[in-house]
Amino acid sequence: MIALLLHGNLQYAEIPKAKIGRVIERAYVPVLSALLKREIPFALNITGFTLELLPEDVLRLVREGIESGLVEITGTAYTHAILPLLPLDRAEAQIQRDREVKESLLEVSPRTGGRFSASSTSSTT
């Protein structure tokens, strides 16, 4: 089985905030559009922080993919924090905030046990 997982996180020091819109238009939109047009299913690991930066037309594109069954949204930390380095209450708050943003903006809750769950991956080491 071949599975495609896209990682969407715009909270990098290397991308100046003034250029985030350009990154979205030149990277996110063409890739999402091409995959959806060709009906290629994929999982999208995107942070709540990044979702809040996306313009409505890009959110609509993601929602259309979810509704068509081509896009599966994964859960993550809201700011892509390294959860094991945080106290438990802060790690839980990161996960909860991410879920709340996805429910609000995408009208979906990341589900467990999807294409990219731990039980569906294997190691070849």
From TrEMBL:
Concerning SUPFAM superfamilies, the annotation shows: Glycoside hydrolase/deacetylase
InterPro entries per record: Branching_enz_MT3115-like (IPR040042), Glyco_hydro/deAcase_b/a-brl (IPR011330), Glyco_hydro_57_N (IPR004300)
Q: Where is this region: Disordered?
A: 106-125
Q: Name one Pfam family in it.
A: Glyco_hydro_57
Q: Name the keywords, alphabetized.
A: Carbohydrate metabolism
Annotated ranges, domain Glycoside hydrolase family 57 N-terminal = 17-112
Q: Which GO terms describe its molecular function?
A: 1,4-alpha-glucan branching enzyme activity
Has keyword Zinc-finger? Answer: no
What are its GO biological-process terms? alpha-glucan biosynthetic process
Q: Per the record's keyword annotation, is Zinc-finger included, yes or no?
A: no
Q: Which family does it belong to?
A: Belongs to the glycosyl hydrolase 57 family.
Q: Which PANTHER family match?
A: 1,4-ALPHA-GLUCAN BRANCHING ENZYME RV3031-RELATED, 1,4-ALPHA-GLUCAN BRANCHING ENZYME TK1436
User: What name appears for this protein in its UniProt entry?
Assistant: Glycoside hydrolase family 57 N-terminal domain-containing protein
- Species name: Thermococcus radiotolerans
